[in-house]
Structures are given as C-alpha cells and as structure tokens.
Design brief:
Mean pLDDT: 92
Low-confidence stretches: 1-16
Largest sheet: 5 strands, mixed
Structural class: alpha/beta
Distance between the termini: 45 Å
Helix content: 40-55%
Order of helices and strands: HHHEEEEEEHEEHHEHHHHH
Shape: globular
Number of strands: 9
Length: about 270
C-alpha cells in the first residue's frame, strides 16, 4: 500500500500542482500562472488545460475561478475577472457579465472577428473551447474566421441601429428572441458579436442583464463600456421600452416565462 501511495504522489508531482478536483497546472501555462501570481491572483483551476491549433501554431489555456491563463510561442497573456482576453485586431472585447457582478467566463462580447490575427484566433479558440460564437450580422459581411473547437452560429438582427425599432419592430423582436434562445441553449462559453460590438450586441446584452435582474444603472454602465456608445440611441431605446410598460413587459414580449428562467439558470 505504501508503494502504491508513493507512486501516486510521484505522478502528481510530475504533473504539477493539482487541486482537490485533480486539475493539474502544467507546462508553460503553469509557468505563466506562477509568474503572474498563482492561486492568490487566479484562484483554483475550473478545468484542465486545453490545446488549440491555428496555422500550425499551438496555444494552451486554462480557466481558473478568478481568470484565465494562456500561453503560445507567439505570445502569452493572463486576465483576471472582470477583464476579458486582450485581442490585437478585434475591438470592444471583454467579459459581458462579470463587470456587472454576474458569472465570469460564460459570456464574452466583441466587435467583428474578421481581422483576428493568429494569436487572437488561438486565444479565442482556447477561451471558447467547446462553446459557441453567435454572430448577429446580416447580409454581405466579411467572412468569419475558423476557430478550432468552437461552433459558429448566425442569428441576423437588422443593422439599422435604431434602438426604438429594436423594441417596437416585429422583425427586430423576433431576431432578438432568436439570439436570446441561442444564448439559453448553447453549451459552454459563448462569444457574442455584431460588426462594431456596440448596437446589436449592446442591446442583446442589455436585455440579458435585465433578465438576470440587473439594475438600470448597471445595464447602462455595461453599455457605455463600449467605445462610441450612443447616448441618443440608448435614450431612444429606453424611452420605447417605457412606452410598452418597462423592461419586464418588453422582455415578456420576447420570451416565455420558461425561457426567462432558462436564461437565469444558465447565467446566474
């Protein structure tokens, strides 16, 4: 028995530090994690290290309770919630919920991903492994790049950026309902984007935050974290919401009670 226990201990030491959930922190991710602060900074691992390959280049990442650690020979990065990954060629990137006090690491938001470079693609593939990218764009748009291990879904929302019509237009309501259903039913982490990551993405996140019970001030603060957020559009959208009876009434036009609960179960 002593020999068996000694052998098991040796395996753990070779693999690197592990938690009670037996997720080892190994290799270059382990080195990056240690140099950046280790457990006091990032917390404990939520799952094992994941590997992604883009253009024959490998990337390695691991989620922790407080953040994420990524390493590749072309670059390394770490981020601690509520911050999200840093992408060189993609704007408005961040965790869509964590800064508002909700679950980190389950929903990210960006602008279009068409210009993502190899490192960006590796980071996105690592963070979203087993998850989904939800593209809200319409018509003839730049082609979405491929992210290994990540599913791409398109749910088109009209691109006019008229927030009042987001509330009153039947086509718009149907489109936002479809997007919210994707958010409710897709497994794993999700990245949500449109073109600038501002209007369609911003309004979808606003609806979700209200579903989760966020205050008006919290939802507004998240909207204006986005570069070039529009005060006039935001106010017009909220005025239209008030005319239909407030956010609860507006959301009830989009989703059933069961769907609302499904979103709460998924993101709270």
């Amino acid at each position: 028995m002593k020999r068996i226990l000694a052998a098991l201990a040796a395996v753990v030491l070779i693999a690197g530090p592990a938690t009670a959930d037996t997720y080892p922190i190994i290799g270059k991710v382990g080195e990056t994690y240690t140099k950046a602060g280790g457990a006091p900074t990032f917390g404990e691992p939520r799952s094992a290290e994941v590997k992604s390959t883009v253009s024959s280049t490998n990337g390695y990442g691991q989620p922790f309770t407080k953040g994420y650690v990524f390493w590749s020979r072309i670059g390394a990065q770490t981020f601690v919630c509520p911050k999200g990954p840093n992408l060189a060629k993609v704007s408005n990137e961040r965790d869509a919920l964590a800064a508002s006090g909700f679950r980190p690491g389950v929903l990210y938001r960006t602008a279009k991903l068409c210009d993502a470079n190899t490192l960006d693609k590796l980071v996105v593939s690592s963070v979203l492994k087993g998850g989904t990218i939800l593209d809200l764009r319409t018509g003839s748009v730049c082609k979405e790049p491929t992210f290994p291990g990540v599913k791409n879904v398109r749910t088109s929302i009209p691109s006019h950026a008229d927030y009042a019509r987001y509330v009153t237009g039947s086509t718009e309501r149907k489109a936002f309902t479809a997007a919210l259903r994707v958010l409710a039913n897709s497994p794993g982490p999700i990245l949500l984007h449109c073109t600038a990551g501002k209007d369609r993405t911003g309004w979808t996140v606003a609806i979700l935050l209200h579903v989760l019970g966020a205050s008006d001030a919290t939802v507004k603060a998240e909207y204006f974290r986005t570069k070039d957020g529009s005060t006039s559009r935001w106010n017009a959208g909220n005025a239209a919401v008030a005319k239909v009876g407030g956010w609860d009434a507006y959301i009830a036009q989009l989703l059933t009670t069961a769907e609302i609960q499904q979103l709460r179960n998924r993101y709270l």
